[in-house]
Write a structure and sequence with these properties.
Distance between the termini: 33 Å
Structural class: alpha+beta
Bound molecules: zinc ion
Largest sheet: 11 strands, mixed
Number of helices: 15
Radius of gyration: 24 Å
Strand content: 15-25%
Helix content: 25-40%
Number of strands: 20
Shape: globular
Amino acid sequence: MRRRALVGLCSLCVVGCVRPPRPSLMGPSSRPVLLPPQLFRAAVPKSDAEWRAAGQEAATLLSQYIAINTTNPPGNELKAAEWLRAVLGREGIEAQIFEPGPGKANLFARVPGDGTGRPLIFLNHMDVVLASPEYWKVDPFGGVVQDGYVWGRGALDMKGEAIAQLMTLIILKRAGVPLKRDIIFLATADEEIGAGVGAAWIADRQPGLVKDAEFLLNEGGLTRSDGHGGVEFYGIGTTEKSPFWLDVTAYGTAGHGSRPTPDNPVHRLVRALRRIADWQTPLTVTPAVERSFRDLAGVERDTTVRRWLSDIRTALRDSVAARVITADLTYNALLRNTISITGLKGSDKTNVIPPVATAAIDVRLLPGQDPAAFLADLTRVVGDSAVTIRPQGPNWPATESSTETEMFRAITAVAHTRDPHALVTMLMLPGFTDSHYFRRMGIASYGLGPFPLTQGDSRGVHGNDERISLDALRFGVRFYYDVVSRVAAK
Ligand SMILES: [Zn+2]
């Protein structure tokens, strides 16, 4: 987020690479788990000192959680799920673990409300991306707490957010806060790879666990710190672009490399890719982006850029403004369907002209775009009947959740209790999260990034020295609790 691209295209069905799920495992873990001390008890924290204690407990939990290495592949999410079950179990919250493959796991827990409202889901993924220790200042899986930070792979993406969710649940349970809706804690495998055994597996194999929910909170939001202890804006993820990954294949005549042929498929492919790379897809302003840009104009310091953002449709008619705005990679990705050529394959042997040559291209479509129409446009751009373009697999339309909901209003209200002038805006992600599985089930799903982060902090996501400050963690736990109690408490 980032706009970091969340990697991983999940297939929509469970493929044959996993063994059948074992029945749910209930009850205590077979392995002893040493849990950190419980630093506050039996009441919702009120004073700053009590919230500091909750933040300290969150930091200790996060440190333990990071130390469970869930680098995917292979993930080993089962270990993480067992730890989460132990933490929840100590609070009297029963959790169920599903094992869709060896070492893989999805954990489900439900804290009941009185049923007057529909459930709220906390979604988090347990897996993390690779970390190369030689580039880090600390062991990325050491759970190191030093210099006012919790360090480690997953501190931001997204074990930190999982702990904010977990602490919210713990506070509600310990204090016995009566709930009007169930809260579902759903920790999934496989977000970073997308092999179909995480959120995809839940949506496909256990939809009954979640389908009655009204709201879902997930990664994909951003609270931008001003770097001086304040918040520049709260960005709530309401929509994501749709990945539409394609294979481009050129056909020709095979032969010996020493005798060039006029229809060498590699030459043909290169010409096709040149045309694709040169194609400027049209600039398109979606309603979500128009609103988001207008909101962000309010915190933009550069007066010219502020004017452009406040009326992006007019600005894009001016070629200078359009060039400057689209030079920003994130703005560019939010304003058009994008194409990145990412893979090439010809012959394995330098002296052999192959019969086919292929390329992989990563296309991301804006909400409202028709994949078939885009494919037709791209085929016209290539203009060669000996080149075919085909989708790599199933895709899904870009999904969107409304801002006119109790949840969006609650987030806005909580931000405004901290700062009446705070900007709360919607974000569209150029990448994607697992939220689309749930949006397609009709569940209003939001990216909520509760930790105030500078741009520098965000670089740790999928990068080196990922870390979260204790101040940001404390802020995030309290923010999460305040939002959820507003929506779920009686
Ligand atoms: Zn993530």
